[in-house]
Specification:
alpha/beta; Rossmann fold; nine-stranded mixed beta sheet; four-stranded mixed beta sheet; 21 strands; globular
Length: 455
Amino acid sequence: MAKPKRRYVCTECGSVSARWQGQCGECQEWNTLVEDAPETKFAAKHDLSAGGRAIVFEPLNAPSEPLVRRTTGLAEFDRALGGGIVPGSAILMGGEPGIGKSTLLLQAAAAIARGGNSAVYVSGEEATAQVRLRASRLGLADAPIRLAAATSVRDILTTLSREQPPALLIIDSIQTMHSDMIEGAPGTVSQVRASAFELIRYAKESGVALVLVGHVTKDGTIAGPRVMEHMVDVVMSFEGERSHQYRILRALKNRFGAVDEIGVFSMEGHGLAEVDNPSTLFLSGRDEPLAGSAVFPALEGTRPVLVEVQALIVRLQSGATPRRAVVGWDNGRLAMLLAVLEARCGLNFSSAEVYLNVAGGYRLTDPAADLAVAAALVSALADKPLPLRSILFGEVSLAGEIRPVAHSALRLREAAKLGFDQAVGPEEGGSSSAKLRFFGLKSLPGLVDRVIGSA
């Protein structure tokens, strides 16, 4: 019998190589080639134009059943999903180890089971006694969840096919599952792909809402083949710093809703608690004005979240290269903003170290944060604090112009609701009201004059 040839598959682009090498020849990514099972060799070339079963085409406007979502009992979880779990959907949830993925899913399964629906929790990493111990600590021991510890996909599907399909099926995690139809250890590319395919096919055929927990790599991406993210309907990321109490559930892909909604949770002693007003969480401890601190009304979907941007400027006495450290914002965006402040406003940051931090471990991706970051930098450089109850938002161009941003009225309404009385933004970005005064700026030098003259 001939020895099967080895082949290596790239986890990023899926290209196949006959030997292992450090860099993929197709996508040029490093350390992405993983050994895969040998491909099947056919004795003759098959003609696929005959011998199959004819399919039936339907018109696009054919009547179909309305989309019915099932709420989990966790409002923040349902918000991130777009309103609830869709029966027959496949959800892939990733997150760093210890961030709380299993805790969140156990709470969601308990809420669904207490509501009269069936929930199945299959753990491939922990024994059933460990899961029961966590459930007891969370106060969920009385929830009628069907629990099992298994790693064989065949055993799981054989058991489920003999009984009524559950409303929710949780697999923790997909990297521990294996199929006896594929060679290789659990966690390899071929095993993860085959196991996910069989579980997703069962969910589609039986109308079961399937949740797959995925491991993440050191880069923060979900481990395994990238094609797994294409196979599922929803890809979710559970984010947060383990040193902070808050957690953010974010949808990266959603075939049944928007991907810009988030769910905010707080890690408490009894598990994950929902945070109805995240702004109060990220702004805690602001009792007096401090230099280098600015408040920015970020927008996550339809929810405004007020976060604090902190800046620190340290002057260097020697000719050492100044350091630029950023936490929670884009490093390249900070370099661009510093260049605009130097070129358009005449400020000197070249001989100073710049440290920027978004309080609470929150990560900003909204371009409207430019004005708040610029205000924090100017305030730290001049050592003059901004008004305590003020917010700033606006996008800064390379010419130093302050451009309008989306949903300005929503940001101002949230700030007024939390007691803020001043807002600084683009000239066409809003208007004053009875509770909040709005100051429009046309260019960045106007912000510098306002910050330096606000002592």
